[in-house]
């Protein structure tokens, strides 16, 4: 008869397996079962202000601004905040204004003693907007269709003041691109699933909407203006309630973006994101930390069980395969909804790689310095 202590490791492994199955079935499962609604006829669409902050984005504005300005929407304006650009952004915007009367600009001049981040530019854009309902994106983004604004605005039903959109990255060659698209999907899987659980904790500024009154009611970014990033996720984190958030993931409502092309640029981007996450509400930091830790411990316990108690190899293997099977059943349909279905073939490897990457970068960000948005 085996000593009772011999069952501790298999028991712990079983515990964390159960925790993982909870997240897969009861958190991600909500997004799996969610069907994005089509456009509803005869909707009374509210006027919209689309806000874009641009710093030295001359090339991207030439490429993508037309697709923002030619949306099929009854009444809207596009407000571009020219944030201290040293290229020809000013003249590009003047060219566009000659053709599109609903394009407005806000210019910020460089100040030798005042260095500001994106939140200052966003704040000026909000103040300069004419309308109550605001939609945000970036200069390097383009909507999948000219119905993007209709789908986003349709989610402003009574009581909803925040709409979380989704913004995938364009597919190119190489592992960096593969991982960026997977990490973006994984981030969306989390924040969209938690939003459906009525516990929204973040949004992505490439495709995000909220009301001007909510912005001023929450005093804008005053509580975290000292943090360079977080104009999107920290705002949602501090202003979302159980009832005021909707999601919008219809294919025609997605906004695409060009991903980082080098590991250095991607590292800087993630450093900004991790820096903002440290300012999340305590309950969200705990929930996200526990989720990440439980996944890491699941893998570590499986490996430890194989090494320390190889006689229980079948427990480690069957637990791993059960989790992987359910992950595939629940998440592959979500990957297709979020237009990253090609990544499903690499799911076993990408899942492990993501856990290791997030753990290392998360620990590094705890001791790192803040970086600017541009």
From TrEMBL:
Superkingdom per UniProt: Bacteria
Keywords: Glycosyltransferase, Membrane, Transferase, Transmembrane, Transmembrane helix
A Pfam family reported for this protein in Swiss-Prot or TrEMBL: Glycos_transf_2
Keyword Transferase tagged: yes
The Glycosyltransferase 2-like domain, residue ranges: 49-205
Transmembrane segments: 6-28, 286-307, 313-335
Family annotation (SUPFAM superfamilies): Nucleotide-diphospho-sugar transferases
InterPro entries on file: Glyco_trans_2-like, Nucleotide-diphossugar_trans
Family, as annotated: Belongs to the glycosyltransferase 2 family.
PANTHER family xrefs: POLY-BETA-1,6-N-ACETYL-D-GLUCOSAMINE SYNTHASE (PTHR43630:SF1)
Annotated protein name in UniProt: Glycosyltransferase
Organism lineage string: Bacteria, Pseudomonadati, Bacteroidota, Sphingobacteriia, Sphingobacteriales
């Amino acid at each position: 008869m085996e000593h009772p202590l011999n069952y501790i490791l298999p028991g712990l492994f079983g515990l964390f397996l159960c925790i993982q199955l909870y997240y897969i079935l009861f958190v991600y499962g909500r997004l799996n079962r969610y069907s994005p609604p089509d456009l509803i006829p005869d909707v009374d669409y509210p006027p919209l202000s689309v806000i874009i902050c641009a710093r030295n984005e001359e090339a991207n504005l030439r490429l993508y601004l037309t697709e923002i300005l030619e949306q099929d929407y009854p009444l809207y304006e596009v407000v571009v905040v020219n944030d201290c650009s040293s290229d020809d952004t000013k003249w590009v915007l003047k060219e566009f204004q000659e053709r599109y009367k609903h394009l407005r600009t806000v210019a910020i001049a460089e100040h030798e003693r005042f260095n500001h981040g994106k939140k200052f530019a966003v704040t000026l854009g909000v103040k300069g907007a004419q309308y109550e309902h605001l939609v945000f994106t970036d200069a390097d983004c383009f909507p999948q269709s000219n119905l993007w604004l209709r789908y986003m605005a349709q989610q402003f039903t009574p009581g909803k003041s925040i709409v979380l959109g989704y913004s995938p990255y364009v597919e190119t060659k190489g592992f960096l691109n593969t991982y960026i698209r997977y990490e973006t999907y994984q981030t969306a899987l989390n924040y969209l699933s938690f939003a459906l659980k009525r516990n929204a904790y973040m949004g992505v500024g490439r495709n995000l909407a909220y009301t001007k009154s909510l912005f001023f009611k929450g005093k804008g970014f005053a509580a975290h203006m000292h943090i360079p990033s977080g104009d999107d996720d920290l705002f949602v984190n501090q202003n979302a309630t159980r009832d005021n958030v909707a999601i919008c993931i219809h294919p025609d409502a997605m906004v695409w973006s060009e991903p980082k092309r080098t590991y250095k640029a991607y590292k800087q981007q993630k450093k900004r994101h991790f820096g903002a996450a440290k300012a999340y509400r305590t309950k969200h930091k705990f929930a996200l930390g526990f989720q990440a830790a439980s996944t890491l411990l699941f893998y570590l316990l499986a490996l430890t069980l194989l090494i320390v108690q190889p006689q229980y190899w079948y427990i480690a293997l069957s637990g791993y395969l059960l989790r992987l099977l359910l992950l595939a059943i629940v998440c592959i349909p979500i990957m297709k909804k979020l237009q990253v279905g090609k990544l499903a073939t690499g799911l076993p490897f990408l899942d492990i790689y993501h856990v290791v990457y997030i753990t290392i970068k998360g620990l590094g960000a705890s001791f790192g310095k803040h970086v600017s948005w541009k």
